Amino acid sequence: MKASVAIQVLPSVKDEDELIRIVDEVIAYIKSTGLNYYVGPFETTIEGESYDELMEIVANCQKVAIKAGCPSVSAYVKVVYNPEGEVLTIDKKVTKHHQ
């Protein structure tokens, strides 16, 4: 695996239930990509071989939130990219903490 991103999508809505509904739609989109992902309490991490593919997913997450009904959306993104090697996987980072 050459890249991973962590994205926190923050829909601009006042109602907590609406916020959860929109974030759930974004997570459903991430799931539909077929890439390995991990949902945490603040962000979702996605792993892939292609930096460009991950950046497209990041952009689409915001579009999904807007299409789901929020007037605007903010996103915080972390990127790890190593085109010549590997990056640490989700499993290597968190599995030991969930046993």
TrEMBL record:
Q: Which GO terms describe its cellular component?
A: cytosol
- Per its UniProt record, what Pfam families does this chain match? Thiamine_BP
Q: Return the InterPro entries for the record.
A: MTH1187/YkoF-like, Thiamine_BP, UPF0045_domain
Residue ranges of domain Thiamine-binding protein in the record: 5-97
Family, according to the entry, reads as follows: Belongs to the UPF0045 family.
Q: Do you know which PANTHER family this protein is assigned to?
A: UPF0045 PROTEIN ECM15
Give the protein name, as stated in the record. Uncharacterized conserved protein YqgV, UPF0045/DUF77 family
* Organism per entry: Eubacterium coprostanoligenes
Which classification does the entry list for the species?
Bacteria, Bacillati, Bacillota, Clostridia, Eubacteriales
